[in-house]
Each structure stands twice: as structure tokens, then as C-alpha cells.
Design brief:
The complex is a heterodimer of chains A (412) and B (434). Chain A has 412 residues and is of the alpha+beta class. Chain A contains 20 helices and 21 strands. Chain B has one domain (5-432): Amino acid/polyamine transporter I (Up-down Bundle). Classes of the chains: A alpha+beta (412), B mainly alpha (434).
């Protein structure tokens, strides 16, 4: 039968000869050895130095009572160890990330399942309890007999999170390394969900998570976060790491972010970035954020208006493209000037040898980079646009505003 | 797939909206001048005249010190007070603390609706109309009000506090003498030029009880929870901290300025005319009519109504939030029920029960108010000691722990506050069993 951390805390411990040794005050998991096995038990005995029992020294465990398979003399004195995860101190009442439910929760109790091996009992951490049963146990354990508590809580709705889905939050990078905390599970979530999870954590914890995510995920998460948080996080990051993350972001998102930072920091980060990306972002930074130029993304797909559907598709297959930008294609005439746009959907339905110029959307819409955001919103609204081309003074396309840019600007 | 996500967000966004409006420091301090507070200030002015005014400056200091620690704790640890208590002191402590917070705050909510009742009584409105109406108003404002409207209404409310300044002027006090009473009374006796104008209070039991009452209504546990939560939800970090500290300072001072005008107003009228005892804040307003004119009386009542409604909208909101956060209702308990339902349920229950008890208990409501003051007397010391322990933890706030001298001042004022709130608790207990 499973045993709960609250039932184990304070359990009286006896050695192989039946002599009283002390009470369990804490127990640890050594993630480097086994990710879910209780590896050490801290036994306190009044004003003597506390002892430590290892997992292979435990003969039996029940609520309130533990028996060892060795004599007291075989136990070592307790020495704190940074690479041990302390269940009471590091887990109970702390916030963890539930990667299956995609949210931040607080731990009420921990479920342990005994595993009998040759001559000893090992406890395996199976799930953390974040619901009412755990709360009831925490409240009543030691006041009311264990049996009564068990009976009471069995009627309550369970809400546990399997240990595999628990992602610990540890701001200290050294400790994170020692405890083998990774965010692999977290990285599988949608960036928007990670961003939402991060909003529930404290600044130091957010910092810890961003620092340990891979750059691509970190970039996507930063793009989803509240801008106030984004600036706080980027300012505190190691500049090299920050530049790597910025590099992964779409240039317009990177420019938005850098625009919120101080001139110095933003220059420092641009300096760290590779030349071409940095130049793109620098150009965007020149624009006022409340203009078409400030909203646009300089990465867009453009082709000559005389090319056929087949030629365009052939060419596109050879390119490594970002799907976000692949909604509408911009057409150029012989003088490299803007001549119209073709939605990819229309391209798909066209005959193979149809020329791009025949597929053009009417009316021909574009805005200069200096146009203010109100104009952009009005055009999107009036013509139900999904994308709008931004042109320079000589009618050459320099960027594209997509509908998601409009939505995020409207929500600001 | 977990569908609760969509429900949770609106609630957190809504809370964030309230926290972001105006400065949390200003809100916390202004809500402090609620129905219970106004009654205590009016009563102290009526009973002892200007001689209680000297306490305002030390009280401002103590209010600022205790609130600043919370703001700092929030800005540097990035966690709310209830979160920190849960993480550092465990589930059981948090559970009992939250149970007491709930009862004490329910008492406070009742006091606010009693304030609505007194104020509208003076203005000639039936309580069966005014109390339910204000309860509905408060509920709708918080649950459905847009950010723009809530902000406008709150700003207007903050302006209406000015009515106390006007009614104080209508009472025609001697301003210079009132200002001189802000100085420590015994020190003024050493200055011959001002000595004849300053009345020295005689320190006896009744005086001590009034002072304790003043402190008890001024520094309330809920403020600390609210302020720290607001600092965290507003994402105030080390860089924005200086701004927040100023907000807290301005709030503490502005709160005390209003208190000054209320006391001066009743001191210049009721105290001078020998009306030393008033039953409630409403009677204070009524008593002003023959002494300072109908205008002053009505303004006083409007101020009371305003303050009561303001506090009645903030208190249940902050209580529900703090309790949900501390006990982890956001996630656990019952996934199907969802966080938002528990939060709004608690919030609605506080308003309905608070307003309902005031309407249907009549005189018995007073007993509940006294009990909540007793509990408050025990809650405040615990909360303050927790704050002091937490704010001195380097692992939580880094090098922003209290300096040695700050700790001295903070511990001394905490002990002083504890003694005074226990005095209030003691007198309330005596009254209960008399």
C-alpha cells in the first residue's frame, strides 16, 4: 500500500535489534542515482547529531513507523548534500510545473510506493498531491489517527500529478545542475503555454527557466510574454545568451523587444548578434513602433510577376521557409517595384502554367513605412486582409505586416 | 485536454487590472479610512479633542514602515505574502492564518455595510434599499466593470475623500492650534511661546483604549497581503521599486491627512460642545448638523458612504484572492470546479453574507464586529512577525534585508502595535462578556 510523505514525517524508527533510533525528519531523493527513489532518510534524535539511513538499510515502512535492517552503529552522521532533493524543504508547499496540465501548482503532499527488493524496502515517489486529500492530511496528520485521516481522504476527489510530469522550479543554476533538473518536458509545450506558466512564477524562477530552455524555444516564449516581463528577463540574461535568443526571433519581434530596452543594452546585444541579422533589426529600430514600418517583418516571400505557378512552387520547395510568412506572396515587376500580392490559397487552386500577374488580388494595396498604425488597422478591417505590403519611397516592398502583428498591436 | 485554462485567465487578468489601477499604496491607505476607521477617528476627536492629534505622525511612520517591508518583500522575492508564508511556514500555519483572515475580513466587510447603512440613514434612505443596492453595485463593478470604468470610479472615490476636508473647514476650527497639537505634547511644554496653546492629554485607561483603537483601525493585516500581492501582480521588480516605495509613502501620508481633518472636525464641534460619546459614524454626521450646518453633516455622510463602498469593493476581492493563492485553489481541490469558480464564489459569499448579516442581525451584528476585532488583535501580531522574519531572509530578498537600525525601529513599532491591538482585543472581550 502507498504511503504519504506526511505519514512518513515524524515516523519512529527502530534498528534491527528493535532499539529506538530516532524520528524521520526529512528524506531525500538523489536524482543523479535514481530519479524517483527515496535514497536517504534523516533521523533526528533530540540534541544528538542527526543520523542518515540509506535506502538499502530500511526493512519496512508504515505510517508512523520505520524499521531498519541494520544496527544503529551502521548508520552515518548526516551531512547536508546539495545534490539531494529534500522532500520537505524543496517539494512540500513549493510551486512546481505540471507539464501535463500546463500550469503551476503547489504541492500538498507526496505519494510514495514501497518496492520490496532483497531484504529491504525502497520507496518510489509516484505522484505529487495537489488536491484536497493532501490538504486534509497536512492539516490533520499527528492530530487525528492515521487510519481516520485515510478514511476521510478516501472520500475526497483525488488530484495528483504523476512524478514524470512534474517539472521542478529551481532558480539557482548550480543546484539545478546537481539535481538534474531539465526542462525537456516543458520544451514540448506550446510556447504560449510556457509563457503563461512563467507569468505565475517569480522573477528569479522565470529567469532560471529561460536560461535553461534551448534558444529557439526561449525566443518563441519571449515573443509570447508580456513585454514588461520580457524586458526584465532579457536585461538580466547573459548578453551572449540573449543575443543567441534574439537571433532566433523574427526580426520584427526582436526589434520590438530591443526598442523597450535601454539604448546601451540594446546596442550591446546588437553587437553580439551576427552582422546580417543585426542590420535587419537595426533598420527596423529606426521606425516608430506605432507606424507601418514599426509593425512590419522584413522577411517576406517575393517573386517576379511574370513567373508561372509551377515555377514559383518549384522555387519555394527549394527554400527553407518560415510558414508564418508563407500566407501571401508579394509580386515584383521588372523594375523591382511592388506590383501586387497573391494569397497562397489562390496559388494552389490555379492552373500550373498560370502567370502570377493573373492571380493578383484587387485592389492593389500597400502602405508606406511612415503610415501610422491607425491606417494599418483600418485597411485590415476594411478589406479583411491577412497581410499588407509595406513599401519604401520608390515603391519597392521592404516588409510585410501580417494579421497577427495587428492583433498583438491592438492588444497592447 | 485540460479546459480550465481558459477560465483561469480571465480571473487573473481581472485581478491584475485592479492591482494596476492607480498605485496600490494609495488604494491600500485610502481603503484604510473605512467605516470602522471613520467612526474611531470621529469618536477620538469627540472624546479627547485635539489631544489625540500628536499620534498621527508616529502612526504615519509605523504604517509606512510596515507597508514598505511588504512592498520590498514583493518586489525582491517576486512572491505574495501568503505564498511566502505557505512556503516558509508550512500548510497548517497557513491554513489557520487564512481561516482567521477570512473571519476578520468578513467582520470588516460587515463593518463597511454597516457604514453604508449609517451614512444612507443620515441621507434619509431606507437600509433595505441602500445596503442590498450597494452590495449589488460593488459586485457588478468588480465582476463586470471595464478597466476604464473602474479606474474612473476609483479616482472619483479618491476625490470624494476630500469632502472631509471641506466639512472640517465648515466646522471652523482654529487651524494653528490644531497644527500645534501634531507635535509631541510633552515636548511642546518646553517651548514657552507655544506652551499655552497646547493641551496635554492625561494618560489613563480610556485614553489608551482610544489610541489603541486608532492604531488598530489604521494598520490592518489585509493591507499587507493586498499590497504585496499587488506589487507582485504589477510585476514591480528591483528597478521599479523606488517608484512603488514613493507610492506607499504618499499613500501613508494622504491617509493620515484625511484622519487629521476628521479628528479636527469633530474636535472643533462635538468635543467643544461637550458631546463626548457617539454611537456610530452616522451619529457623528447627524451631530454635526446643528454645530457646523447641514452641508457639513451631509458631506460627512457622503464621505462615509463613499469610504464604505470603496472598502466593500476592495476587501472581499483581496480576501478571496489571498485565500485562493495561499491554499492553492488555483490548481487543486477540484479540477472540474476550477479556480475562477472558487474565487468568485468566495468573493460573492463575502459580500452576500456581509451585507446580509448587517440587514438581518440588527443589534447582534455588533457582537460579530467585536469578535472580529478580537481576532484582528491576534492576527496582526502574527502577520507582522511573519513579515519581519521574512524580510530579514537573505535567500528571499538578497541584500535588501532590513538594516540593523531599520530592524530596531521595525521591531519596536511592531511590539508597540502588538500591545495596542491586544488592548483593543481585551476591551472587546470585556464588552462581549459584560
Amino acid at each position: 500500500m502507498d504511503i504519504y510523505a506526511t505519514e512518513l514525517m515524524g515516523a519512529k524508527t527502530y534498528d534491527v535489534a528493535g532499539n529506538y533510533v530516532g524520528r524521520v525528519r526529512e528524506f531525500f531523493i538523489e536524482p543523479a542515482e535514481a530519479p524517483n527513489r527515496v535514497s536517504h532518510y534523516l533521523l533526528s534524535r533530540g540534541h544528538f547529531q542527526p543520523l542518515v539511513a540509506k535506502h538499502n538499510q530500511v526493512a519496512s515502512v508504515a505510517a508512523g513507523k520505520m524499521e531498519l535492517n541494520v544496527g544503529e552503529r551502521a548508520l552515518e552522521l548526516y551531512k547536508p548534500n546539495e545534490s539531494w532533493l529534500a522532500v520537505q524543504k524543496d517539494l512540500l508547499d513549493q510551486q512546481i510545473i505540471d507539464t501535463s496540465g500546463r500550469k503551476v501548482v503547489r504541492v500538498n503532499d507526496v505519494d510514495l510506493s514501497p518496492l520490496r527488493t532483497n531484504g529491504n524496502v525502497e520507496l518510489r515517489l509516484t505522484q505529487v498531491d495537489v488536491g484536497l486529500p493532501g490538504a486534509v492530511r497536512r492539516l490533520l496528520q499527528g492530530v487525528v489517527p492515521s487510519k481516520v485521516v485515510r478514511k476521510l481522504q478516501s472520500k475526497l476527489p483525488q488530484s495528483g500529478i504523476r512524478w514524470e510530469f512534474v517539472n521542478l522550479v529551481e532558480p539557482d543554476p548550480m543546484r539545478r545542475l546537481k539535481l538534474r533538473i531539465t526542462h525537456e518536458k516543458l520544451e514540448d509545450l506550446h510556447p504560449a503555454d510556457i509563457a503563461e506558466i512563467m507569468e505565475d512564477l517569480s522573477a528569479a524562477e522565470r529567469q532560471g527557466i529561460i536560461a535553461s530552455l534551448d534558444e529557439e524555444t526561449a525566443a518563441a516564449v519571449l515573443a509570447e510574454l508580456d513585454e514588461r516581463l520580457t524586458t526584465q528577463i532579457v536585461e538580466k540574461l547573459d548578453p551572449e545568451k540573449a543575443a543567441d535568443i534574439l537571433e532566433e526571433m523574427a526580426p520584427d519581434a526582436a526589434a520590438d523587444l530591443l526598442g523597450d530596452l535601454s539604448k546601451e543594452t540594446s546596442e550591446e546585444l546588437l553587437h553580439e548578434m551576427p552582422g546580417q541579422e543585426a542590420d535587419e533589426v537595426r533598420e527596423l529600430l529606426e521606425f516608430d513602433p506605432a507606424t507601418a514600418g514599426g509593425m512590419m517583418n522584413p522577411d517576406f516571400v517575393f517573386v517576379g510577376e511574370a513567373s508561372t505557378r509551377e515555377e514559383v512552387l518549384q522555387w519555394m520547395r527549394g527554400q527553407e521557409m518560415n510558414f508564418d510568412q508563407l500566407d501571401t506572396i508579394v509580386l515584383l515587376d521588372n523594375a523591382a517595384q511592388f506590383s501586387g500580392t497573391v494569397p497562397v490559397a489562390r496559388l494552389l487552386l490555379a492552373a500550373t502554367d498560370q502567370r502570377m500577374t493573373e492571380l493578383k488580388m484587387e485592389p492593389l494595396l500597400s502602405l508606406p513605412a511612415s503610415a501610422d498604425d491607425k491606417e494599418v488597422f483600418e485597411l485590415f478591417d476594411k478589406y479583411n486582409l491577412r497581410m499588407l505590403t509595406v513599401i519604401d519611397k520608390v515603391n519597392r516592398p521592404i516588409g510585410a505586416i501580417t494579421v497577427d502583428d495587428v492583433v498583438s498591436h491592438l492588444l497592447k | 485536454m485540460d479546459r480550465i485554462r481558459g477560465v483561469i485567465r480571465p480571473f487573473r487578468k481581472r485581478i491584475a487590472m485592479f492591482f494596476a489601477i492607480v498605485g496600490p499604496g494609495l488604494i491600500v491607505s485610502n481603503v484604510d479610512n473605512d467605516a470602522g476607521g471613520i467612526y474611531t477617528y470621529a469618536q477620538s476627536g469627540a472624546q479627547f479633542g485635539n489631544t489625540v492629534l500628536w499620534t498621527l505622525i508616529p502612526m504615519t511612520l509605523v504604517l509606512y514602515i510596515s507597508l514598505e517591508m511588504c512592498a520590498r518583500l514583493g518586489a525582491y522575492s517576486g512572491k505574495g505574502l501568503s505564498d511566502l508564508i505557505r512556503e516558509e511556514f508550512g500548510f497548517r500555519v497557513t491554513f489557520f492564518l487564512m481561516a482567521v483572515v477570512l473571519v476578520v475580513n468578513l467582520g470588516n466587510v460587515m463593518a463597511e455595510f454597516t457604514g453604508v447603512f449609517w451614512a444612507t440613514d443620515v441621507l434619509g434612505i431606507n437600509k433595505y434599499v441602500s445596503v442590498p443596492l450597494s452590495a449589488v453595485l460593488v459586485w457588478v463593478l468588480v465582476v463586470h466593470g471595464s478597466a476604464k470604468w473602474v479606474e474612473r470610479i476609483f479616482l472619483t472615490i479618491c476625490m470624494v475623500y476630500f469632502s472631509y476636508v471641506i466639512s472640517a473647514f465648515m466646522a471652523k476650527p482654529d487651524w494653528l492650534i490644531a497644527l500645534l497639537h501634531l507635535l509631541p505634547p510633552h515636548l511642546t511644554q518646553f517651548v514657552p511661546t507655544i506652551k499655552p496653546f497646547v493641551q496635554v492629554p492625561t494618560f489613563n485607561a480610556t485614553y489608551a483604549v482610544i489610541i489603541a483603537g486608532l492604531v488598530g483601525t489604521t494598520i490592518a493585516p489585509w493591507q499587507h497581503f493586498y499590497l504585496q500581492a499587488a506589487v507582485v501582480e504589477k510585476r514591480v521588480g528591483p528597478r521599479q521599486y523606488a517608484h512603488t516605495r514613493n507610492d506607499v509613502l504618499v499613500g501613508s501620508i494622504s491617509c493620515m491627512v484625511i484622519v487629521f481633518f476628521i479628528i479636527v472636525c469633530t474636535a472643533a464641534t462635538l468635543y467643544v460642545k461637550g458631546i463626548h460619546h457617539i454611537d456610530n459614524a452616522g451619529t457623528a454626521a447627524l451631530a454635526l448638523k446643528p454645530l457646523a450646518g447641514k452641508g457639513a453633516s451631509v458631506l460627512f455622510a457622503i464621505g462615509l458612504l463613499n469610504a464604505s463602498i470603496f472598502a466593500a469593493s476592495i476587501l472581499p476581492l483581496s480576501t478571496a484572492y489571498v485565500v485562493c493563492e495561499a491554499l492553492g485553489f488555483e490548481s487543486g481541490i477540484d479540477r472540474k470546479l476550477g479556480e475562477a469558480k472558487i474565487f468568485y464564489g468566495l468573493y460573492t459569499a463575502l459580500i452576500i453574507v456581509g451585507a446580509g448579516l448587517v440587514l438581518f442581525l440588527g443589534a447582534h451584528a455588533n457582537t460579530i464586529l467585536l469578535w472580529s476585532q478580537v481576532l484582528n488583535g491576534f492576527l496582526l501580531p502574527v502577520v507582522l512577525i511573519f513579515i519581519l522574519i521574512l524580510v530579514n531572509r537573505r535567500d528571499l530578498v538578497g541584500d535588501k534585508v532590513n538594516s540593523r537600525s531599520f530592524n530596531w525601529v521595525a521591531w519596536i513599532s511592531t511590539v508597540a502595535m502588538i500591545v495596542l491591538t491586544l488592548v483593543v482585543a481585551y476591551t472587546s472581550i470585556r464588552e462581549l462578556f459584560h
